[in-house]
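Comment thread on ticket #2218

A.B. wrote:
> Attaching the input chain for the structure job we discussed in standup.
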Amino acid sequence: MSTKYKIRDQEQLYFVSFAVVYWLDVFVRNEYKDVVLESLCFCQKNKGLEVYAWCIMTSHVHLIIGTNDKKMEDILRDFKSHTSTQLRKMIKDNQQESRREWLLWMMERAGNKNSNNNGFQFWQQDNHPIELWDNYMKEQKLDYLHDNPVVSGFVSKAEDYLYSSARDYCGEKGLLDIILIE
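C.D. wrote:
> Ran it. Output below, let me know if you need it in another format.
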């Protein structure tokens, strides 16, 4: 019996979280967060991804997503594969990255421990999708996602965190086009 979380209904919204292996704080640099944003934007335009909310923390990403025509697990697989490759290259080539050797070593270590990989792993294996089947769950996950930077002490108000959709929900334009949850 599989213990993995599954996306069962492609027409529902899902709260999805995924983290860097060993919860490494990779997203302390904006250029790394921008790779995630660019990939989400690409998936919106080319793969049918619908983004309702998002937040990039230092070691993980939270999304509320849906899809209009493709399987969500396929979109997430492609997204994680692309960002993994791009971020590995960026870290490797970034002469300003003081933790470069250590980060690459940790990701190689994770990849060597996982038979699904070829000696390198950026993201943890699972996505933890949670189906948002009612308004209470949608509001709860939306609040959790947007409050994450506040709870972590990065900002005092959720809408002040640049790498989140919280500002979209306060009437300002954020970094990524989203569909507001009503």
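A.B. wrote:
> Thanks. Noting for the ticket: The beta strands are 13-19, 49-56, 60-67, 130-132.
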